[in-house]
Amino acid sequence: TDTRTFAAVDLGATSGRVMRARVGPGLLELAEAHRFPNTPLRSPDGLRWDFGALHRGVLDGLRAVAAAGGAHSVGIDTWAVDYGLLDADGALLDQPYHYRDPRTEGVAERVRAAVGPADHYAVTGLQHLPFNTVYQLAADGDRLAAARTLLLMPDLLVHRLTGTVGAEVTNASTTGLYDARAGTWSKELLGRVGIDPALLPPLRRPGDPAGTLLPHVAEATGLPTTTPVTAVASHDTASAVAAVPAEGPDVAYVSCGTWSLAGLELTAPVLTEESRAANFTNELGIDGTTRYLRNIMGLWLLTESQRTWREQGLPHELGPLLAAAERARPFAAVIDPDAPEFLAPGDMPARIAAYCVRTGQRPPEDQGSVVRTVLEALALAHARTLRRAAALAGREIRTVHLVGGGSRNELLCRLTADATGLPVVAGPAEATALGNVLVQARAHGLVPDRAAMRRLVATTQPLRHYTPGGDRAAWDAAERRIGPA
Ligand code: LRH
């Protein structure tokens, strides 16, 4: 029987990892080859990614993969929207901006004057987030003068490894410049926003070949130059959704990490005015599917609280904090996790307290209560978002699959089951890396189709089941405390 090894590079907002996976009939086994921190740089000109560190982390990871026996192919995914700019010589102009940098404040209003929100949504189907690529580009101004090529983060790393230039479509769909129906860059939008179409490379699809390793990369990693890099669903969320261990009209998912992405997989985008008003996005999944979902601020609220506590010399280990949250009084305060003041890095517990004061609530009294408030807020946002997605798409949800790092958080899983009133299947935690691997495995003939990919996840990965319980009336009352979705 045929068994192969694939390497998945998966960069998240707080850490990067390079995984090695064995795939064969009934076999899907993931092992971490290398993990490294992703620490953004605060410079006088804004919050940037430390691209050199990420690039090095990827090479170190591939060296570990080579040492462990090599890989049949390599795939790369990262978070969405951010990009690097190359000059005429193919050199990176400067460090890519972090989407949490405030330079896009007020920029959306300017773009709105060139493209009305209704027109923009009718073409892209993209939810409004202040940091969508189109707004970042509008904020770039002179920085664009010397730029000849824009590469989204995963494509930038592919370029570093292979020298090829391309834009993988699932991630291109998060830019605000991609025509969801035509499946191409929107020349019309680019013209109206004043972005040179020549900046944007040709599109490639998950499964397409994306070159082979450059000689110096082979030398640095110990992998042969013949090693193919395969385009995967390079938007991490698209990879995570590809590894949800079920599909069907009654299945919903929450991909829960730094962000919670809650929604449905559809066969066509929903581009209605009602959908736009509810700020649902139609991002592209594998095989032309639509990821119909909304961004929820996610575990960022918790990790940023932990970071604050660490700096203040307070306890910040997750285990004890979650134990304290279990004991804390339910619904001490109810917050909207998507309040704009939670987006930027900073003292999260202080911001949560300020939110409570502003909304006439008593702030959570201790760390356990802060953590419980955050997890209840996320569970409630999961429930409201899924209910709304189902209504807008004309679906009925019977199961919620919670994937990603958040699936390890038992309290969050239980609260999500309680808030939605639906059974929650939790796992896999490494859905993104698995989705990355499975798209490669399919492209290289080891798995026949999408349904088989998902069956393979379902039969090989540990999953936990949560049955809804809790106090329905208390959740309804909590929901009334934050107002309409
Ligand atoms: C999650 C994610 C999400 C985007 C955000 C920028 O990692 O890719 O889907 O909206 O980062």
Automatic annotation (TrEMBL):
Coiled coil: none annotated. This is Rhamnulokinase family protein. CDD domains: ASKHA_NBD_FGGY_RhaB-like. Belongs to the FGGY kinase family. Residues 73-241 form the Carbohydrate kinase FGGY N-terminal domain. InterPro entries: ATPase_NBD (IPR043129), FGGY_C (IPR018485), FGGY_Carb_Kinase (IPR050406), FGGY_N (IPR018484), Rhamnulokinase (IPR013449). Keywords: ATP-binding, Carbohydrate metabolism, Kinase, Nucleotide-binding, Rhamnose metabolism, Transferase, Xylose metabolism. It comes from Streptomyces olivaceiscleroticus. Pfam families: FGGY_C, FGGY_N. Residues 252-443 form the Carbohydrate kinase FGGY C-terminal domain.
